[in-house]
Every structure is written in structure tokens, then in C-alpha cells.
Amino acid sequence: MAPAEPAGRRLRIPAELERLGDARAWGREQAAAAGFAGRALGEVELALTEAVSNVIRHGYKSDPASVLELHAEMGDATLTLRIVDHAPAFDPTEGDPVDLSEPKAGGYGLYLIETVMDEVTWRRRTDGANELRLVRQRPMA
Amino acid sequence: MQVSTQQLGDVAVITVDGAVDAGSVNQLRTELDSLVGSGQQRFVIDLSKVPFMDSCGLATLVQTFKRVRIGSGDVRVAGLQEDVLRIFQLVRLDRVFDLFPAAPEAVASFGTQHGAG
User: Fold this and answer.
1) For chain A, what is the domain count?
2) Separation CA B60–CA B33 (nearest Å)
3) Which residue range(s) make up the domain with A16?
4) What is the pTM of this model?
């Protein structure tokens, strides 16, 4: 049986954009605990914010009665952040590629996530939840 | 997040204080839309008190930029902190917006181009 997840490695928030700051602060805390600092810390914070924002806006349509869960797992070499929600199936990794040759008034979210994280995967779990998994190599000690 | 506007000649200086994300960006968007709607063309966005900006914040700035560039206007950005500058660089908006260390320089840059066409 897997050991219980430490409480500090998990956050449940309602699907309200006003709670993005809470998700961001939690993500920053997890990344700092994993040894990230400076630019890398800001990048992990950005990726998590974009991912949570996507779920709230596109998955839950900003329904505050819905809840999403954030999980952090610290491996020896990687930090893994998982965003779990029960919105209708939606794979955020299947967005159109972004053309950066001219400025766009939107559509940068997925590009930013995939640019700053080493691995971005989505799956529909057997319990019907969506799970987005963001992985980044931890800084060398 | 707080947004305040100061009019310096024909330049509107928008000072933003706090994180700009999908939850807070409406305040900035509303202010910029209102000013553009009333004919304002020249903007300086002072982000020196903004520790974080997400893609919704970027989109709002680009939207304003596109609207005023149809005329002779421009949006110039000042005081980017390291993390926010990084986001501009990731999506190459550092090549689109003229960036300045601080708002006074950005305001002055409009003066030096005044009448140049």
C-alpha cells in the first residue's frame, strides 16, 4: 500500500478564478521545497497557474460549486504536479500550435506550459476524472 | 490587484499593482478598453509593481496594442520584473512591445518621436 500523501502536498480549491492566487502560492511553495529558485521557480509557478486557469475556465466554465485538486510529488530527480478535476473530458494538450511570428490576443497558455515543463501529459482516469500531469527536472543540488 | 491611470499630456500611464492573472485581469482590461474607446492612443503600462503575469494578462496587452496600432498609437511597457520579463520573452512579445526600465523613460520616448509620423 502506498504511503499517505503528506497534507502539504495537496490542495483542494473551488473552481473560481479568484482562487488562482492560492493555487499559485501553493505551487510556488512546492517548487521551492523541491529546490527550485529564481527563474525556474517562476516558470513552475507560471505553468501551474496556466493549467489551473484552463481547468476553471474551459473545463468547469467557472462553476464555483466544482472543485479541483492539486497534488505535488517530489521524486529524487523530478517534481510532478498533478491537476485533477471532474469536468467533462478535455485534453488541454491537444491545442493548436502557436504561431509566434506575430502577437496574438490569446492562446499562449498551453505553449507556455509545454515550454517551461519537461513533460506534460493528460489522461482520463477510470474514475472519470481528468488528470493533467506536469513534470520538471529538479535543480541539481 | 489595483490599476490607476495618470494622464501625462497625450500619454496615459497605467500603473498596475499586484499579480495579473485570469482572476484579476478584468480590472485592467476594463480600464484599457474604456480609454481606447474614448480615443486614447498612447499608453505606458507600468508593471514595476507586478510580480506575476499570466497569458490572460499578455492577451489583454496585445489586444490593446492591436487596437491602437490601427491608428498612430502605441503601447509601451515599463518596469518589468524578472519573472514577467521571462514570460514576455517566452512568447516573443519582448520583440513586439518597446520595453523600458521605468515609466518616465517610456513616457519620454513618445516625446522624442512626436511629429515623426
Assistant:
1) 1
2) 9
3) 9-137
4) 0.92
In this complex, do B55 and A109 lie within 8 Å of one another by their Cβ atoms? yes
Cβ of A42 within 8 Å of Cβ of B82? The answer is: yes
Is the CB of residue B54 less than 8 Å away from at least one CB of chain A? yes
Element (H, E) at A120: strand A119-124
As a whole number of angstroms, the distance between CA B53 and CA B56 comes to: 8
Asked, for residue A3, whether it belongs to a domain, the answer is no
Residue A41 lies in a domain: yes
Please report where in the chains the cell 520583440 appears, as a residue.
B95
Q: How many CA atoms lie within 13 A of A66 on its CB side?
A: 20
Domain assignment present for residue A1? The answer is no
Q: In the block, which residue shows the cell 486557469?
A: A53
Let me know if residue A66 belongs to a domain. yes
Q: Is A42 helix (H, G, I), strand (E, B) or coil?
A: helix
From residue A132, alpha-carbon distances to A17, A66, A69, A78, A82 in Å are 18, 17, 11, 16, 6
Question: Between chains, do A109 and B92 touch, taking CB under 8 Å as contact?
Answer: no
Question: What CATH number does residue A78 fall under?
Answer: 3.30.565.10
Pairing between strand A119-124 and A78-85? Answer: unpaired
Q: What is the pLDDT along chain A (141 residues), one digit of tens a residue?
A: 556 666 569 999 999 999 999 999 999 999 999 999 999 999 999 999 999 999 999 999 888 899 999 999 999 999 999 999 999 988 888 888 888 888 888 889 999 999 999 999 999 999 999 999 999 999 986
Residues B110/B42, Cβ–Cβ less than 8 Å: yes
What is the complex's ipTM, to 2 decimals?
Answer: 0.90
